[in-house]
Amino acid sequence: MTSAQPYLYRGRELVEPDWTRFAGWRDASRADWESVQWQRAHCVKNVSQLRDVLGDGIDERFYADLGRDQAERATMSMLLPPQMLNTMMPGVAPSNAGATEAFYADPVRRYMLPVFSDRRTDWPSHPYATRDSLHEHDMWVAEGLTHRYPTKVLAELLPTCPQYCGHCTRMDLVGNSTPQVVKLKFGAKPVDRYDAMIDYLRRTPEVRDVVVSGGDVANMPFKNLEAFIARLLEIDNIRDIRLATKALMGLPQHWLQDDVRAGMERLGTTARDRGVQIAIHTHVNHANSITPLVAKATRAMLDTGVRDVRNQGVLMEGVNADPHQLLDLCFALLDGAEILPYYFYMCDMIPFSEHWRVSVDKAQQLQHAIMGYLPGFATPRIVCDVPFVGKRWVHQLADYDREHGISYWTKNYRTSIEADDVDALERTYAYYDPIHTLPEAGQGWWRRHAGDDDFTAAAAVAAKASRQAALTQADQVPVARAVHA
Ligand code: SF4
Question: How open is the CA angle 284-15-369, to the nearest 5 degrees?
């Protein structure tokens, strides 16, 4: 007898789901579908537009659920290009029996179109959740330019995207305000912000790598993006440029436009002459989002001289936090669309994200489960973006209080706000598991203490006690084993 492998690889052909199954797009031609202008003009921005697209069939309770979420929970406003909506419940027409349940259960819907009943009611937010959970603004060295790691920076050029994701980590700044979140606004004019960024990079030779992001660079008029990158290419110390765009998947039509391809080719030629690498980083969370148009847009970008297209997904319960879902996605990226699976980030501790977040323990198990199936160069690392630290591989933690769900992390560099902090590299930094994933004792502790004024101190004391108890227990285990042996 042989035992089956935990995961069975099967090559899979990419499919563009039939958009005419939706009443609102019944008459949309292929030319319409492949036109970026048509896609932008037909984006779904509210409940009533969604109802018009889906037509009859989806229960009213879904729209009520969605409306309640928009009013009471959403940190991002609704914005779905048809390309993105079409990857939800592929193969199911809203008029089919069971379509409402299929829509509720759909993994892409779960993060792009969250509804109130998706969220937890016990702990909708972690007590330590914050709007700018990674403290990117604290580390701005010019408005929108975050300098966290020693050799690289993040340039937030604009605060908008062609699609808005429910779990967006930059929910503080990106997108339109919602009833729950009044968004921050950049103070300076774009042209002045870009000048200040370029000026900082010119006088900071230790920075060699710029992530050009937002928002999503696909929302920037291409000539402005090209001008900014051309300026980066003139700075001797800049050796790597990475363009962040989820639109490669959500609106691939953008990257297939002739003027965009021609502009990327001009940048690719200059980059090659100067020995600089330009790469694209995209954000795909489920295999269903990889369609032939996504593969075509990726190929078009690689043909312009882009060195690599890499995926930085986000690990989310109900979407992809399962070994099969992760491996299906990685193979769809790699085989179908020539996109390198690169990272999966644990979902950040923003408000109302507890139903998506997983514990560090689960993230470690998932990392273990996906090892060995993909080529090493395409095996993504699952990382935790620890506040005030940065990305850490999930197995890198220094200590882990599982009862209270507090992991402790160290770091080996100073961020831009710690130049004078002598203890920055000696300290441990905390990250918190979702409370509903903890053992009952830990959940009870949080229920009792979450409102305390001295909450942080109480957490530290409790964590120390539980670590001590764990150590004592560990000491006793070998003795017990020895007796039984
Ligand atoms: S594309 Fe990125 S920046 Fe834009 S909403 Fe989604 S996660 Fe946020």
Answer: 45
